[in-house]
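(Fold this chain)
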Amino acid sequence: MTFSFRGKLLQPEIRLDLDKALQQNLEPENIYALLATRNGIDYYSYEVTTHP
């Protein structure tokens, strides 16, 4: 997904070991926060606008 954040066009990505995530009890809803954190962005912001 590509989107704008603070005037920058971003296409964040993450490599996630699902076996390890399950062992660490990672909840599915926390993947958004993990994706944002690893890409240096705020995972919840009114400044985000999605692009097709």
